[in-house]
Design a protein that fits this description.
With about 280 residues, the chain is of the alpha/beta class. The chain is built from 8 helices and 9 strands. Helix 6 links the parallel strand 4 and strand 5. The chain is globular.
């Protein structure tokens, strides 16, 4: 039982518990409506054939709109969007370098769950062919318009990626699996393995031991037993779905078909306090 559920039985606090539950429900409904409207807007623009203004190659990309930053990052704060995105990009390069891969020497790189380009905008100086994909069509549309040196695609929450097998030297998924229930995680790990070259590296960020204190008693028991903890799995792909990964689960289950090269506790800079995992495709 959650702490909030216990509050219902405490004199004087039951109203607070009901208010918190109502607010959480409102936030969920608002999130669902934002995603519905975003998809509808994307379809209408595609049918109209409208051609929005695009950022010219070589020009600094603008900030995405606040509502788009909020949808994909959980906050509309512009400074956080820029500084955390840069830290994430730098952290990615450092993690790869420690494991024998120079990002500057890669031929093709995939940002899985690219959102509105929070990290990819800081990698456009690379000679690699940069690709990004996401289930948020509006985020992808913004990237197409404003990050012209990379290529982008929309995927469903569960679909095949529109890339040939063995296409990428490196793929990364930062704060993506942290918002997907177990069946979707398994699906996407198989897909990411498929599109990586043999020996290619995958970097993922996950909620680990640093967040155990956020779990209730039952969730902590599951986590310590090595079981995945999933909250609000019905809201997969949004920030309301939160998933916590015990290291044993990652090593023994999630990383099937990969070799674990590094587990950096709280090492996903730009996505604190998430762990960073570096995996090599077998």
């Amino acid at each position: 039982m959650r702490t909030r559920d216990l509050l219902r039985f405490v004199p004087g606090l039951s109203k607070l518990a009901h208010a918190l539950t109502a607010r959480e429900r409102e936030n969920r409904l608002l999130t669902e409506e934002c995603w519905r409207l975003a998809g509808e807007n994307h379809r209408l623009k595609a049918r109209s054939g409208a051609r929005p203004a695009r950022t010219e190659p070589g020009a600094a990309p603008p900030l995405p709109p606040e509502v788009l930053r909020l949808m994909v990052a959980g906050t509309g704060d512009a400074e956080w969007f820029l500084t955390a995105g840069k830290r994430a990009a730098d952290s990615l390069a450092a993690l790869l370098a420690r494991n024998g891969v120079a990002l500057e020497e890669c031929e093709a790189v995939l940002d899985f769950g690219c959102g509105c380009g929070r990290v990819l905008r800081h990698l456009t100086h690379l000679p690699a062919a940069l690709h990004g994909c996401d289930s948020n069509p509006v985020g992808v549309e913004w990237c197409v318009e404003h990050l012209p040196t990379a290529r982008f695609a929309v995927n469903a929450l569960e679909s095949s990626l529109d890339y040939d097998a063995g296409s990428f030297d490196v793929a990364y998924a930062l704060s993506v699996l942290t918002h997907l229930p177990q069946p979707l995680q398994f699906h996407w790990m198989r897909e990411l393995r498929r599109v990586l070259k043999p020996g290619g590296l995958l970097v993922v960020s996950l909620h680990g031991d640093a967040l155990v204190g956020k779990l209730n008693r039952a969730e902590r028991a599951d986590y310590r037993a090595g079981r995945l903890v999933v909250r609000s799995g019905e809201l997969a792909g949004t920030n309301h779905c939160a998933v916590f990964h015990p290291p044993a689960f990652v090593r023994e289950v999630l990383a099937d078909g990969f070799e674990v090269l590094e587990h950096a506790r709280e090492g996903a800079k730009g996505n604190p306090p998430q762990d960073a995992w570096v995996l090599r495709r077998k």
